[in-house]
Amino acid sequence: MPVRFAEVAAEAYRYPLLIRHLLHGPLAFAPNQEIVYRDRMRYTYATFARRINRLARALSRLGIDSGDTVAVMDWDSHRYLECYFAIPMMGAVLQTVNVRLSAEQILYTINHAGARLLLVHRDFLPLYETLRDRLTSIDTMVLLDDRPGAESRPTSFAGEYEALLAGAEEPFEFTDFDENALATTFYTTGTTGNPKAVSFSHRQLVLHTLAVLGAFASAADRQSFRANDVYMPLTPMFHVHAWGLPYVATALGVKQVYPGRYEPNAILELRQRERVTYSHCVPTILQMLLEAPAAVGSDLRGWKFTIGGSALPAGLAQRAMDRGLDVFAAYGMSETCPVLTVSRVAPGEDPSSATHLRSLRKAGIPIPLVELRVVDGSMRDVPQDGRTCGEIVARAPWLTMAYGGDSEASTRLWHGGFLHTQDVGLIAPDGSLDVQDRLKDVIKSGGEWICSLQLEDLISRHPGVAVAAVVAIPDETWGERPLALVVPRPEWRIRLTESHIKDHLQRLAQEGVIARYAMPARIEIVDELERTSVGKLDKKRIRERFHHA
Amino acid sequence: MPVRFAEVAAEAYRYPLLIRHLLHGPLAFAPNQEIVYRDRMRYTYATFARRINRLARALSRLGIDSGDTVAVMDWDSHRYLECYFAIPMMGAVLQTVNVRLSAEQILYTINHAGARLLLVHRDFLPLYETLRDRLTSIDTMVLLDDRPGAESRPTSFAGEYEALLAGAEEPFEFTDFDENALATTFYTTGTTGNPKAVSFSHRQLVLHTLAVLGAFASAADRQSFRANDVYMPLTPMFHVHAWGLPYVATALGVKQVYPGRYEPNAILELRQRERVTYSHCVPTILQMLLEAPAAVGSDLRGWKFTIGGSALPAGLAQRAMDRGLDVFAAYGMSETCPVLTVSRVAPGEDPSSATHLRSLRKAGIPIPLVELRVVDGSMRDVPQDGRTCGEIVARAPWLTMAYGGDSEASTRLWHGGFLHTQDVGLIAPDGSLDVQDRLKDVIKSGGEWICSLQLEDLISRHPGVAVAAVVAIPDETWGERPLALVVPRPEWRIRLTESHIKDHLQRLAQEGVIARYAMPARIEIVDELERTSVGKLDKKRIRERFHHA
């Protein structure tokens, strides 16, 4: 029998999940709350709403209509926040250009997105000049300038942002449209090929906002983002909408502080002056902040940080906690809007305990509506024993539905009806997720998956080990087997042997910490290991060196 | 130009907002969390999930299919929670029968809903017997029994709930369907005519759950509902899904405690034994709890209460706070799923201050996605000056789209594209909503609205006044004018005159607290005022007595 539907009164409002609707609350109860951009701009939510209207009017006057794409190249600013709202609210699509890509990649993404209008910060004008003749769809440029009027703008530009807003009238008549309309798009880079386009609809961004709000606000006590916080993003706004948190902050009606280009000392000063209590960043930024001169002797207590993008190292987490920071991990990626999980410490857990440190570093628990599975190569769930690895696959209402213009990669992404993260993880008996590896680095041995990171971590517990790398080597019987490469600590350089490591791992196998099939087929003591330009182990080059050794 | 839509990979999962999806989180991270029913039942979320599957199998075996309506008559129980999930998850519609209505009204609602199957608690068997021959759509009955097997069941019944579950197999294959499918229906009673049917879809209930979770979890510190709370409803589960909070509690994965029939002493004992920290109720229940013998000398500290249904009196709020309870108001009604707003105290506000007391008693601020307006008779917004009254109208993604089978009332409900609450309120300059009156009690004087409750409250501030009632009297010039009826305190019985009240109000008008047009046309000192059976002022009878006086 079919399901039934409600009767609908003729004038009943069929409420579409549009970004515009996130503003009702904050404009009602926080019209005087502040939005701050460095030391350049400070205004209220009420002004913010007026500026959104003016921006839409200005863009409209420049020919932008629903369905058009507008590209932005800016540091984290109030302008970017205005674009987060005004552009999708017009029915247009916001492209957040990743300014850290190479010039050729940036060119590719803007052309591939078919953006018609480009808002570009003065800092990126030299870059823009190298691209301008090859931009195939851009027909209008607007300058973003922190000192409007101070310097001249290129004559080809339609205007400067603040001047355009000042010349625009209010209100813009924002109308309702299909909640599945595209709102944002940006590009994610893989190891090979061109950047891939992901995109998100109004419905997806609104649902992501509600779910993240619920998950981040409902933590037992610390490790939270709530109505009394002061917010400052420290993941760039061009990167997965700064993890979607500017939308959450706006819905909460909290004070928001935008730091511009990331300069550790300036960020620390701004944090102190504006009394920022909640930020989010990748581990590298956290480390930069802790090591910045301005951090020495300054009081960092009560500053909460969601950490994502890559694993939060135990040492860094501990150093941050020692300084009074409240750090906790979350997990997701460009394709997932991004949040899938957030770490959760048990209420009443001793903050100085090892359990606590482990809990807050984990990917953690799914946020509302996320269906998470860890599966083997045949999409069967692996046991939740905290030991068996598998690929993390997910469903949620806010995952990109495809890679734009790449049906082959899209088919792989959604194989079997779940989004494939290409991350390898395990689920502990308590249900929490721990991310272990990238799928490409996993060793597939006789139907079992061996996580290289897990094995590296266990080998590193031997007192003689400075660094360990584990890669796959081909094996006729098992398909692949693990090869462990070990760099000894200076004081162990002469005496560390393969047997030390083997005995160490066998003890761990007896204790049940590691499966027998995960024991390396070969262990080699080496002087050093190949690293990438940012200092990570370069598994690709390591594999090449040892593949046939 | 039309908006654009995302490409969609062939196998990409188009995630419908179904109640089923609220379970992913808690089943992943809280499988061992407890659900408790009085001293009768205690099991884990993992068991809960299995029982949902068994219930669906059992109902299916009894002929229930998607599109069917299943009616429930029970006290607050684990069974009811299972029905909240299993019945909608099958694509069927859950009718929560209001067991407090008259027998004739109950009969009307079950027949009007066209329910096919009735789950009925043993306590309601005598009532059921008086209705059975006139139930036009029910063809199957199931007994709900707190002591299964203890007594025999009527032979016409298909079985007893626990026995049916025990005999059913797992799993039930829950499938996806349209998120706009009806999930629940129930009836709301007005002052005249038959009860009116409201109904809610899966999408509406999921969105209400996320928005309530975000709003209730994100409060600055106290006045919240979070992951470390223990939940016990004290608004009946037949009434607007116990304000939707069992869905929120389940999504949070918290311990849940169901109290059965409300008996103050038993509730207080259960609360203590199970360490309940969060409940919600109408003011009357709160008062009953505070006055119960078991409350004397028992430690109530740390018990949080959302109060709704009617205004939270200052005296009751103060008494509750004196006992260490953490009370805060919320606002909504049957037609709105129900939550529209929640009170919000400013961070750092002194809990013993009058401001604090006033803040937490207010309807407060809209929860995410709620668009709230206070309008005059022509749907124009009234000024947000904390003084000008208007009707509260709303949009949100979870409002009933009509009254079932009553197109005339539905048209009135949604006149102008906003849901009309028929409540009169005012918005303070800080954006918070204060509910003042029912629309039918407002005095419409020369285009201005005068709130009877506001005027009564101001008159009551005179030391000589015990009770005041304000009603409309017809006026040739103004349409209506206020008539104030005042019962003096015993010690003022002889000396209180009309002039005392007039002077008192004129002072308030000079201070700007009250508008000049709100001054009563007439003031009468009376010995007593008509009251309803539950002790409320009976405005209808008061109007009748004084209409032509």
| Arithmetic mean pLDDT of chain A | 93
CATH architecture of the domain at 45-194 in chain A: 3-Layer(aba) Sandwich
* Helix and strand composition category of chain A: alpha/beta
Name of the CATH superfamily of the domain at 45-194 in chain A: ANL, N-terminal domain
Which protein chains are joined by the largest interface, and how many residues does each one contribute?
Answer: A-B, 89 and 89 residues
Number of strands of chain A: 25
Tag the structure with descriptive keywords.
homodimer; 549 residues; alpha/beta; Rossmann fold; GMP Synthetase, Chain A, domain 3; seven-stranded mixed sheet; five-stranded mixed sheet; 29% helix; 23% strand; globular
Explain briefly what this protein structure is.
By secondary structure, chain A is an alpha/beta fold. Chain A contains 17 helices and 25 strands.
Description of the molecule:
Two copies of one chain form a homodimer. Chain A is an alpha/beta fold. Among the domains of chain A are: 45-194, ANL, N-terminal domain (Rossmann fold, 3-Layer(aba) Sandwich); 442-546, ANL, C-terminal domain (GMP Synthetase, Chain A, domain 3), CATH 3.30.300.30. Chain A has 17 helices and 25 strands. In chain A, strands 7-6-5-3-4-8-9 form a seven-stranded mixed sheet, sandwiched between helices. The radius of gyration of chain A is 25 Å and the shape is globular. The model of chain A has no long low-confidence stretch (mean pLDDT 93).
Give the topology, please.
The structure is a homodimer of 549-residue chains.
Chain A: H1 24-29, E1 34-37, E2 41-44, H2 45-61, E3 69-73, H3 78-89, E4 93-96, H4 103-113, E5 117-121, H5 125-131, E6 140-144, E7 159-160, H6 161-166, E8 182-188, E9 196-201, H7 202-217, E10 230-231, H8 240-243, H9 245-252, E11 255-258, H10 264-274, E12 278-281, H11 283-291, E13 304-307, H12 314-322, E14 326-332, E15 339-342, H13 354-361, E16 365-366, E17 371-375, E18 390-395, H14 407-413, E19 419-427, E20 433-438, E21 443-445, E22 448-450, H15 452-460, E23 465-475, E24 479-488, H16 498-510, E25 522-525, H17 539-546
Helix pairs in contact in A: 2-3, 7-9
